User: What shape does this take?
Amino acid sequence: MDLKPFFITTPIYYINSTPHVGHAYTQIAADARARFERLRGREVYFLTGTDENALKVARAAQAQGRDPLGFCDELAQAFQDVWQTLNISYDDFIRTTEERHRQPVIEVVQRLWDGGFLELGTYSGWYSVPDETFFRPEEVVERDGNHYLANPSEDQTKGPLEWTEAVGHFFKLSNFSDQLLKIYADAPERLRPQSRRNETLRFIESGLFDTSISRAQDWGIPLPSGVPESEGKVVYVWFPDALLNYATAPGYLADDERFKRIWPPDLQLMSKDIFTRFHATLWPALLLALGLELPRELFAHGFWTVNGSKIAKRDPETIVEPIEFSTQIAQSAGNAEIRVGVDALRYYSLREVGFGSDGDFSTTGCVTRYNSDLANGLGNLFQRGAVMLHNYFGGRVPATTFSDSSWLDEFKSRQAKVENSYETLDFSGALTEVWEVVAMANRWIEEEKPWAKAKDGDLDAVAVLLNKLLLVCQWVAVCTFPAIPSSAERIWAALGRSEPMNWANALQPFEEGHQTPPPTPIFPRANLKTFEQIENAALQVRAQKIKEQDMQNQTEQNGTPIQTPAAIPEAIAPVDAEAPEPTYISIDDFAKVQLRVGKVIEAERIPKADKLLRLQVDLGYEKRQILAGIAQHYTPEEMLGRSVVIVANLAPRTMRGYESQGMLLAASDDSGKLALVNPGDVSAGAVVR
RNA sequence: GGCGGAGUAGCUCAGUGGUUAGAGCACCGGCUUCAUAAGCCGUAGGUCGAGGGUUCAAAUCCCCCCUCCGCUACCA
Assistant: This one.
């Protein structure tokens, strides 16, 4: 076996809010694998942390009149508190504002420059502060003198963009395509699951672009002074800053001996949205540039919807805060300790869907699973055996010889299956296997009818059964420990075991006379109705909070013109179809637009474009090629010979490989109806004004 | 439009050429009383999205279509 510690990572989390069930999922999965490795006796280095150098974080702090670092301290602590409550056994928690991270990042940028992996370039464009991203001109629309993202996704900004021009330092990512493809070609285990691997290969094959790694900002890790044009610039938050945490934490460029012992990561987990671009492409390219070994396995898990809907901060029904939720379950289970609810959450997360697929996190589904699998299945099984042991034998293990021990072999082979499932991150499969055993043991009791045998005085037979049950419970405790550690430990203790649990002692026999403590239920049953009441009450509180926050945000944004000089209220207020507020322009402004009448002399569809027609338009004094997005309203035949009004002095632009030298005027309403402006009977080239 | 994923029991899903398509939950009936209104057994429930094809044999392979989800692209 490999002597190197098993190095496992989660992403470092962007601290814009407290952790939700999505964050918790990655943590739980990583924790399960880490605990599994430790259980098998392997040293583990389990790394997680927070990403704190985003400009948005600094501005959020400033908006509250607070010191950014203090703001981060608080949120980073909140993350750690949640992880501790969820029993996440991380070995290291790195914050990107720490010196042990900042220093090596600065040095890495210098090395990249010295090694010729960076080059200077200029770029300019519409920049979004919250997203820390430049957008291409075609992604941007103008409204009321401000520029906005044309089709912002759920988590992209709806606010105005800032025009930014700067000298940038570009990482020559394009140089690494071939190398990466070669590495990935015959190593399917490096990128999992298979579907993500395919996606990544296609992404790289489609061509990589050099990427700017510097930003002119006052928050973040500064560029080293040995790099030209470094003044006033910080490192892009993703590259190499955030990604490099995986190397700085184990001691890269700081503690060579430690780093050499731990590197490379054996398993890096993340959700699918940051897999392809960042972890499977940029990150290994960075490592290649630095001459470091690549991670052995990258694994992308899927997304959760919550109660059937996409997670949205503004939809209270989709926000599941792990601690609050665990508390709710525990409360509805006869006010049990929170760790009971935590294990319900952990169990459900790992059991409900295959790791790697998307799934739906149903809060009542979780409670139902808790009741059926944990309380009725495992908990009750343990209770039956333990109570009988106390009733018939005073809690002391009776002497036994097994006439047939073939069932022990079966357990060994089942444990091997469970082991293999954990190794391949098939948590659902591992737990399914264990619960087959739970069902089987419940059947044993049914078949043996120990209560009847006890009545008949056949205590020997009862002793055999109870010994088997004890071993089953012990076996289950070991096998489920990675998934539900606190419950497994409670079972372990309830069996009277005090030595450390490990993978090899799952089937260790119980000595005659071994004393077990008086039994209490491991998983008290939850009352679904009670849970729903508690959940509903919390939901209303949350909805109220969101309302208040919205109002607060509005007033805050009105009061702080730092990032966005104007027009935020207009941007946020719902668009009123009636009576648009007039914004006057001068006659000179209008004169800048040259409108002409033209006659369509050719018209055809563009292949693979469902909205575009390619037109040749005669302006009298010249011919123009114009692309118009009207294919869903006009056929090429209808267009032929038609008179149209065109904007004649619009800057040309290429679409779909064709240059468009102007624009057709058309009217459209909210229902999507579109009609071309008809100039009537004037000759081609006539001026419109 | 392109690329990818998905469509199987009321619900959540497993099942990549081979009996009569499975599991869990929910439902219904029976048994049981050691146990947490827990356990066990059983019934019922499916034209495997539609259609076509290959095959002795198709949920599974091929073609075409429909629906949903994600990413992405052209209204200058």
